[in-house]
Amino acid sequence: MPSFVKQSLAGLRVLLVLTVITGVLYPAGIWAVSRLPGLHGNAEAVDTTLVAVAREGGGYFVPRPSAATLPASGGSNKSEVNADYDQVVAQRKAEVAQREGVAESAVPQDAVTASASGLDPDISPAYAQLQVPRVARERGLPEQRVRELVAAATSGRALGFVGEETVNVTELNRALDAGA
């Protein structure tokens, strides 16, 4: 057999093997693992705080808004000069101000702008502090106790100087549910 034919057959075998592995076996394995009991609770991934989980009710901290309809992920291509975007941000600002009982000027930027993926679990400490009185009142907890929980869920800057301090809303709400 000529060298070209041998190389072509070897390449075809490699193609078929990799197609079966990456196109059939790997997806089937991931699907099977996702069906194992104990990995999901109430359609929420457990044992992770890397994804924002919005909760219903006034006794929970509210994550950043999402441009996508969850569980999908995605951002918006609208910019600050888009009239529709301005209207959405203004509407969100009014809703947050009303929910928290503050002036619209007191609403932090991250409370009204969506994260790039819509799944970001982090909010600014300012947005968390804005929500403390409402959460404490709804849960019947002292504000100081809720502030302690916020402090426990707050992460500092990476390496001490990269990025901003953030509060993980998923971690914070789970601590509230745990009876903290």
UniProtKB/TrEMBL annotation:
It comes from Actinokineospora bangkokensis. It holds the Pfam family KdpC. This is Potassium-transporting ATPase KdpC subunit. GO terms for molecular function: ATP binding; P-type potassium transmembrane transporter activity. The chain crosses the membrane at residues 12-33. The system is composed of three essential subunits: KdpA, KdpB and KdpC. It is found in: Cell membrane. InterPro entries: KdpC. It is a single-pass membrane protein. Part of the high-affinity ATP-driven potassium transport (or Kdp) system, which catalyzes the hydrolysis of ATP coupled with the electrogenic transport of potassium into the cytoplasm. This subunit acts as a catalytic chaperone that increases the ATP-binding affinity of the ATP-hydrolyzing subunit KdpB by the formation of a transient KdpB/KdpC/ATP ternary complex.
